[in-house]
Amino acid sequence: MELIYLDNAATTPIFPDVIDAMHQTMKEHFGNPSSVHAAGRSAKAKVESARKYIAGQLGTLPKEIIFTSGGTEGDNTVLQCAVHHLGIKHIISSPIEHHAVLHPLEHLEAQGFITLHMVKVLSNGLPDMSDLERLLSDIPANKLVSLMHINNEVGTVLDIEEVGNLCRKYEALFHSDTVQSIGHFPMRLGELPIDFAVAAAHKFHGPKGVGFLYVRKQTGLGALLLGGAQERGMRAGTEPVHNIVGMEMALRLCYETMEADTDKLKALKTYCIEKLQNALPGTAFNGACSDLNSSTHTIVNARLPMNEKKAQLLAFHLDLQGICCSKGSACQSGSESGSHVLNVLLTPEENIRPSLRISFSPENTKAEIEKLVDILEAYVNS
Fold first, then answer.
1. Which of 8, 178, 292, 295 could, after both became Cys, cross-link 155 (CB 3.0–4.6 A)?
2. Catalytic residue at 331?
């Protein structure tokens, strides 16, 4: 059975050119970048070339880009090191952040290192800006705000500039998980009022196990992983040269076609919403995902009109039909408590109905959407 892959918010298929670049790097640039001999210098040159390219695309300095194993490490580095190295005592976040943010924050609070403040979240998935300003004004000093750019479940897009300016006004550091936006939006981090951001290559058709952390210069952030002087002392461990080259290639390819891909994905998302509404009257959309002006073009999160018995077997039925998508985020699959994001955004009555996250890449087609909707319609009406 041919798979229809509609779970790109969880991970994306690797571009063939990325695989080729990684393969060539493993054959020809296998040295340790910390070694001073020719093989080491060759590998180091590939790493620094990738860093320079990424920094150029994001409007940052090369030294502000730190290579990591992905988004989770990046988020943990910022949050834990801001507390232990920068003296942060108060962190403002939201209850719908990714668990790579929420779990470190809960741990830091449980250990008595911080006071955690949760901003109110509106039904569209955005923070209540008046509540955020109230929190910022009430906390005198030593504070950091951590709010994601694009929510990985409902796709709501945060106005980073507005939040960042508010943080500057009240002298707070600003961290944002930008895992769902890097590679999909033209981000100029160096020109935004933001101090820390993270990315993961596998979210934009690169390899798993590599990402990067943006650390604005002179913030004073230290390292989470110790043991070597790699990454200017910011991240110990031998750099995975082939993964870093693969990430660079993936980002290059995304930027080359970003404008055309965005137009295609907006049309595909609009088509998906219309097909679901026509085939399954009563379908609702969570957060602001049905509004292209307020949400990413890569995610639809639909609440389907279906009884509880059918809802329990929905994911299993779709899998049998060769459809790959998610009931919540991939990180939530198998969780009996359901999506922590939807638990916040929906009423208990709304949350009884099953929600399906459909997330796109430029490789998806209208024919695939039609097949998904046909399968859902037949299942609901059976």
1. 295
2. yes
